[in-house]
Write a structure and sequence with these properties.
heterodimer; A: about 350 residues; alpha+beta; Rossmann fold; OB fold (Dihydrolipoamide Acetyltransferase, E2P); six-stranded mixed sheet; five-stranded antiparallel sheet; globular; B: about 270 residues; mainly alpha; MetI-like fold; 2 domains; 13 helices; disordered C terminus
Chain lengths: ~350, ~270
């Protein structure tokens, strides 16, 4: 087979890691989940920095770990690049020596190779600088150059963007995406940010409490979240309620705390109703007019946060929900904390998952 | 007003500390002129003592660093049952009075000691020998180094060692190329402490190795031997020891700051 196969059970302090996942050929996968879900531990197991029993790690046709047959390659024998969360650049070595650390040969050829590698990531001019003299973004590039210096079969990235400030993160994320594309190695990215995962990976594994709770593309996870947890992670609004069949082949959900919503999903009993903030429209409060939007909730505006040309509007209905609208709409509707509005969205945009 | 009083109090405290710790040293140099110092260097027993002190303390330091560094690394990076007990046992010589250390060494490596006959059969004599001085110095000085080195290794970010491993380094290479340079400052300050302790060692050496000129009489022992007969020459030799110790301390500190051992590493 090509690709990566990981099967492990590993009791950690709070949770038990119990994972069975496969990543295809030269694919890029993201492991997302809240902190403490076991994501970083999984990377450490793949790299050989931790050896669970039972455990099995196969990359391509190489078995790196197989506890049942006693195979356990040490980290230095696994063709695996690791980019650590804080980059873990050696503070006592210059950038080129950091990259050359894993290269074989005499000093001149190692220096040449390291500088070529740094140039590939646009930081060749920083070859003689110590990590302390580099900016966050420069450190990230040196770390990536170093992690890829030995042509690994699989590249592991632990929260590659979390050490950067929010202003540079989006730009660095797109750059990292391009760099990973050029490198062409199979890559596994750990992140707690769904949008980062969507940007950097083709396939996303959502982890919670040591288990993979759902896997799929970002679009699949957004469209068909298997649980309220996944939906919440994908950025959806989660409204708890009780579902029962209603007229017109729809399902009607009585929300906890008041209000009802309709969905085209068919189910019964306690459910979470999910809708994405960008599916929600806001209107002035008042009587309805003809519309295809089946769902109308009277809401209080709690907060308005403008992000460029968009605004995230925090609402209480009374369960909390968020709508994403244009800043123009915020102005024309006079939305600000303390005002009232009506939130509307379509029944077809409302996913129901059992609680 | 109250803030000013506090600041004055702080300065007063520092002044008292400084005065109390430096005045006795200053007194040595007030009593012993530079001419006295140079004259004392001309005396054969003083030269013997200085040379012996340097030789034995360096030998002890070498033993401590070569064996102590990996031991400290193990204690800092691996958790095992009984680790606390091991750490406590290693630190015990720190609090032992020198006389107890001397007795303990005699009881273990002396002719009637626990390992006395085994050492004798192997042709190794320690008591009243230069080798015995080295054993005594190593015994009292090692804990100073081990403590510092262990703390320095424990402060090295584990992800640096992990990164080294994923870049193809064996555990040994990660230790030499990453852990040691990153712990460089702590290691050199541990070396300075251990060396200083070894240079000043008196009680354990006297009891275990005796005080024979050129064989076991280190500078502190020579100072003590002169003290009862010739206070001035004892002062002069003390002055020499102060200068040598200060020079050592200074050079080790410079070594720690330089790039040789990864100065500036955090």
């Amino acid at each position: 087979m090509s690709g990566l196969e990981v099967r492990v059970r590993d009791p950690l302090r709070e949770i038990e890691l119990d994972v069975d996942l496969r990543v295809n050929g030269s694919g890029r996968a993201a492991i997302v989940g809240p902190s403490g879900a076991g994501k970083s531990t999984l990377l450490r197991i793949i790299a050989g920095l931790r050896s669970p029993d039972p455990g099995r790690v196969v990359v391509g046709d190489e078995v790196w770990l197989d506890s049942s047959s006693g195979i356990n390659l040490p980290p230095e024998e696994r063709a695996c690049g690791f980019m650590f969360q804080d980059y873990a650049l050696f503070p006592h070595l210059s950038a080129w020596r950091n990259v050359a650390f894993g290269l074989a040969g005499d000093r001149a050829s190692r220096r040449r190779g390291a500088i070529e590698q740094l140039e590939r990531f646009g930081v060749g001019r920083l070859a003689d600088a110590r990590p302390a003299a580099l900016s966050g973004g420069e450190r990230q590039r040196v770390a990536l150059a170093r992690a890829l210096s030995r042509d690994p079969k699989v590249l592991l990235l632990d929260e590659p963007l979390s050490a950067l400030d929010t202003r540079t993160r989006a730009h660095a994320g797109r750059e990292l995406d391009a760099a990973l594309g050029r490198a062409g190695a199979m890559a596994i990215v750990v992140t707690h940010d769904f949008s980062e995962a969507a940007l950097l990976a083709d396939e996303i594994f959502v982890m919670d409490g040591g288990r993979v709770v759902q896997q799929g593309t970002a679009a699949e996870l957004s469209a068909r979240p298997a649980s309220a947890f996944v939906a919440d992670f994908a950025g959806a609004v989660v409204l708890d309620g009780t579902a029962r069949p209603a007229a017109g082949g729809l399902t009607r959900v009585e929300l906890d705390g008041g209000g009802t919503v309709n969905s085209t999903d068919l189910t019964e009993g306690p459910v979470a109703a999910l809708v994405f903030p960008w599916e929600i429209s806001l209107e002035p409060p008042g009587p309805s007019h003809p519309s295809s939007a089946q769902n109308r909730l009277a809401v209080d505006v709690l907060s308005v946060t403008e992000i460029g040309n968009r605004a995230r509007v925090g609402l209480a209905a009374p369960q909390p929900l968020v709508a994403e609208v244009t800043t123009d709409s915020v102005r024309s509707l006079g939305l600000r904390p303390g005002t009232r509005a009506t939130a509307t969205w379509k029944a077809t945009a409302t996913r129901l998952v059992a609680r | 007003m109250r803030r000013a009083t506090f600041a004055v109090g702080l300065f007063l405290a520092l002044f008292l500390v400084l005065a109390f710790l430096t005045l006795p040293i200053v007194a040595i140099f007030v009593h012993a002129s530079p001419a006295d110092l140079i004259k004392s260097l001309g005396e054969p027993d003083a030269r013997d003592a200085l040379w012996l002190s340097l030789k034995t303390s360096l030998a002890a330091l070498a033993i401590i660093v070569v064996i102590g560094t990996p031991a400290a690394y193990l204690l800092a990076t691996r958790d095992f049952r009984g680790r606390t007990v091991v750490v406590t046992l290693i630190e015990l010589p720190l609090v032992l009075p020198p006389a107890v250390a001397g007795i303990a060494l005699l009881a273990s490596f002396g002719p009637q000691g626990l390992f006395g006959s085994a050492l004798h059969d192997a042709g190794i004599e320690l008591v009243l020998q230069t080798a015995g001085v080295i054993v005594a110095l190593t015994f009292v000085a090692a804990p100073f180094y081990l403590r510092q080195a262990q703390e320095a290794f424990a402060a090295v970010d584990r992800s640096l060692l992990d990164a080294a491993r994923t870049l193809g380094a064996s555990e040994a290479r990660a230790f030499i190329r990453v852990a040691v340079p990153c712990a460089g400052q702590g290691i050199t300050s541990g070396m300075a402490l251990a060396w200083g302790r070894a240079l000043g060692e008196f009680g354990a050496t006297l009891m275990f190795a005796g005080s024979f000129q050129g064989i076991t009489q280190t500078v502190p022992l020579a100072i003590f031997a002169r003290f009862s007969t010739d206070f001035t020459s004892a002062l002069a030799l003390s002055g020499v020891l102060v200068l040598v110790s200060a020079a050592l301390l200074l050079s080790v500190k410079m070594l720690g700051r330089s790039s040789v051992l990864g100065g500036g590493a955090t």
